[in-house]
Amino acid sequence: MQNIKKNLAKMLLCVFLLTTLVAPAYAMDNESNEFTRFIVAEGLYPIDSSILSPEVAEIMPDFILETDQGSIPVYSSEDLDFGLNELQILLDVALENQPVNDQIPALNTVAEDYEMVFVEEDYTYSFYNHPEGNTAIYINPTDTGEEELIPGAITMTEGIGARAKTSSSSASNISAVMKCDTVPYYAGSIQDMGKTPNSINFYNYIGFTLTGLEADLGFIYSAKYSGWKMFGRVNDVNGSFIYNHNDHASYTSNADFVYKSTSSYPSTMTAEKYNLYNGASRVKLEINGYQTTTLSSATSILIMPRGTTSSVQYKVCTTIATVGDKSNIKKGATITVKNSSIMLAGSGVSSFASLDYCEATINWSSSVLTSIPLRQ
């Protein structure tokens, strides 16, 4: 808990210092020459669900946060150690970064749904503000499980790999068929161990990019289960928001399925840049393939913040990435993936605007994109 206090306080201070000339987090009271918060957390009150029916208790918040702008429901998955001070800092930073079109940042002043997520070592704090009044705060333990740390909208500097990007397109989605017939080779690197700083992971994914926004949606390889699992990450390149497939803000179906993704049992990835889910703008990933254990056909779905209706550059990527230093990827580590039947809204892609690579080869021939990252 000290970590969240320290980090959020630092973030608030940095944001305040960097933006006082543009959008200060506090308003100046000219008479007293003191700063006044846009919102003040006044009290945190637990909800006694024992007196409610199970059906009602299941949808009730765990706390009510009273502010000078109204009540905010607070949902917590466990009996966690947080208080009014942590929530005040969260509100300060969240409203400071809230896009508002010439209005004073406040609850329900946004033109469209707005989310901000802080992922800390112990807890993940999320703030939701919606024009319709559906404001809420969620607090959950940060998932430190295996295979759950996703390198942020993976760039060529965080690892090695190959990336094909289309020209700017208004198409609603991208799809590709993935085939990987050789087992990813770790070459002595530490295998996918989640938050272990020295471990590496293999990825094959599709997605999109536009100014300030990156979306990576596809597969992460699991050495433990000898197959490919669904993953997703969407983030602002400036770091003001980051969403992962395992965040509570994401909806998943069959997230734990493991897919073969070979020539005999291929997997199809389809990523939508905009999906209206529960009245909110989201991105959607759908995977269709064959499970490693039964070889039966299966489908997994991921819906997560945040979507866009703007034109984007779509991408197809194969990467080897690490949480820590690039030297964690040992010499000889490699993977070979073929992505075929690449389509934008059902129309086949005939060419790419760019083919980028770092310690990798990438070849586009006969409508098949072959990518081979190889650590030198």
Structure in words:
The chain is mainly beta and 376 residues long. The protein has two domains: 2-141, no CATH class; 159-373, Jelly Rolls (Sandwich). The protein has helices at residues 2-19, 54-59, 84-96, and strands at 26-29, 34-37, 41-46, 63-67, 70-76, 114-119, 123-129, 136-141, 159-169, 173-179, 200-210, 213-222, 227-236, 242-244, 251-253, 258-259, 267-277, 280-290, 297-304, 312-322, 337-344, 347-348, 354-358, 360-365, 368-373. The strands form four sheets. Strands 10, 15, 17, 18, 19, 21, 22, 24 and 25 form a nine-stranded antiparallel beta sheet that branches. Strands 9, 11, 12, 13, 14, 16, 20 and 23 form an eight-stranded antiparallel beta sheet that branches. The chain has a six-stranded mixed beta sheet with strand order 3-4-5-8-7-6, with helices on one face. Strand 21 (337-344) and strand 22 form a beta hairpin. Helix 1 packs parallel to helix 3 (84-96). The longest helix is centred in the first third of the chain and has 18 residues, at 2-19. The chain is globular and about 60 Å long. The two termini are 42 Å apart. 39% of the residues are buried.
